[in-house]
Amino acid sequence: MTADAVTDASGTDRAARRAVTVFPVLVLLAGAIGLAMPDALAGWKTNVPYLLGVVMFCMGLTMSVADFQGVAKRPWAVALGLVAHYVIMPGLGWLIAHALDLSPQLAAGVILVGCAPSGTASNVVAYLARGDVALSVSVATVSTLVAPLVTPPLTLLLAGEYLPVEAGAMVTDILKTVLLPVLGGLVVRLLLGRYVDRVLGLLPWLSAATVALIVAVVVAGSAAAIKSAALVVFAAVVLHNGLGLALGYGAGKLARLGAPASRAMAFEVGMQNSGLAASLATAHFSPLAALPAAVFSVWHNVSGAVVAAWMARRTRRAERV
C-alpha cells in the first residue's frame, strides 16, 4: 500500500483507526465461524491460494512508481529494514518454538510466520503511529517482492528439523500467489490508474474480508485440535509479535534512523503477511501448522493498533513540550 493510498484509504486518523479496529473483529468473527461450522468450510481448503492471490492483487493495485522511487532514494534504510525483518522474525520463530517445546506442526507454523514478508496492514499502522510511512511502504514492497527467494530457503533452514520442507514447490507457490498477482495489480494500476483511484478506498476492506475468509478456512481445518493447542499458540504469537515490534524499533534506533523511521521499522519487522503463511502451511504442512498464522492475523492488528496509539500519544506530548 503506497503512502498516498494510506491517506486516500483512511482520509483521517479516525478512518484509519476504524480500519485497524474492524479488521481484527472481522477476523475474530471469521475464526468463530470456522470453529462452529468446520464441515461447511471443509471444501474450501483448496481455494486458500486463490484467496491469497486476491489479497496480493489488491496490494498491487495500491502500488505506484513512487514506491520504487522511494526505495532508490533511501537504499540504506530500506536494506536495513529488509535485513532486520528477515533476520529477527525467523530467528524469533525458531527460538520461541524451542523455548515453548512446540509440537513439530506448530513449530513449523510459527517459524513459517516468521519467514513471511511484511504484513499488508503495517503501512496503515505506521501512519497511525506518526511513523515514516514512505519507509514503511518501501520495506513492505521490497520484502514482498523478494519473498519467493527468501521465504522458502529460510523455512527449510529453520523448520526443516521439524517437518520435511519442499523449498522448490514453495517458491513456485509464492510466485503464483504473491509475486504474479502483485505485479498484475501494479500493471493494472499503471494502465487504468484513473479508474483504480475511484475504488482505492474499497481495496483494504476487500483485502480484510478475504483474509478473514482464509482464517475461517484455516480454523475450520484444525477445529478439533484448537482446544488443546489454543493457549500455547496464543503465547507463541504474543511473544513473536511483541518481541518483533520491540526489536524492530530497537534496530531503527541503533542505526540512528530517527524516531519516525524507528516507529515504521517496528511495524515492518513485527507485522507479518500471515495470510501467506497460512496458505503455505495449509498447502505444504497441515491445517494445524496454519493455526499460528490464523492467530497472528488477529493479534498483530490488535497489538499494532494499541502500540501505534501509544506511540502517537507520546509524540504529541513531546511536540507540546
From TrEMBL:
Keywords: Membrane, Transmembrane, Transmembrane helix. It is found in: Membrane. The keyword Disulfide bond does not apply. One of its GO terms (cellular component) is membrane. The keyword Transmembrane applies. The chain crosses the membrane at residues 19-36, 48-66, 78-100, 106-126, 133-154, 199-223, 229-252, 289-312. Gene3D superfamilies: 1.20.1530.20. It holds the Pfam family SBF. It is a multi-pass membrane protein. PANTHER family: P3 PROTEIN-RELATED (PTHR10361:SF28), SODIUM-BILE ACID COTRANSPORTER (PTHR10361). This is Sodium bile acid symporter family protein. It comes from Streptomyces jeddahensis.
